[in-house]
Design a protein that fits this description.
Blueprint (H helix, E strand, L loop, with lengths): L7 H5 L11 H22 L5 H12 L1 H11 L5 H12 L11 H19 L3 H17 L4
Length: 145
């Protein structure tokens, strides 16, 4: 039996694919989910709180403008490979746009999500979490509202 969620491949008999074969929007699809899961986990582990309060705090960190701000903070520390994944995601045309987001914010957020998806599928969880922590900073996580 898998010890954690990271044991998905073994439990469901999944094979790793060449990450270069994934479209940037597919990487963004999984990256959006894993980033939100990380944020929700952090907020829940900080202590029990009403769900509407948790949701409000999470929304502030996962919306397109917040993700755009994160990539602006971490972009200089990205490796060439990571920057290429981000750029491909940023330049991908999805045909949709987030509510209450500028086109620039939405594209940068899609690039950020593609990067998170890439690192997750690459199983480079440490790097993924390091970039998230660098991008959001402690001050955005440790506030009461």
């Amino acid at each position: 039996m898998a010890e954690s969620i990271m044991g998905l491949n073994e439990l469901f008999h999944l094979e790793d694919q060449d990450l270069r074969s994934y479209s940037p929007l597919t990487l963004a699809y999984i990256g959006d989910a894993i980033y939100e899961l990380v944020i929700r986990t952090i907020l829940v582990k900080q202590g029990n709180a009403p769900v509407n309060q948790l949701n409000s705090r999470a929304t502030k960190l996962v919306k397109a403008s917040a993700q755009s701000d994160i990539i602006k903070v971490i972009e200089e520390s990205l490796t060439e490979e990571e920057h290429d994944v981000y750029r491909r995601g940023r330049n991908a045309h999805s045909g949709t746009m987030a509510k209450n987001a500028t086109m620039g914010d939405y594209r940068r957020a899609t690039g950020f999500e593609a990067l998170m998806g890439y690192l997750y599928l690459k199983k480079d969880y440490g790097r993924m979490l390091e970039l998230i922590r660098q991008g959001i900073g402690e001050d955005k996580l440790n506030y009461e509202q």
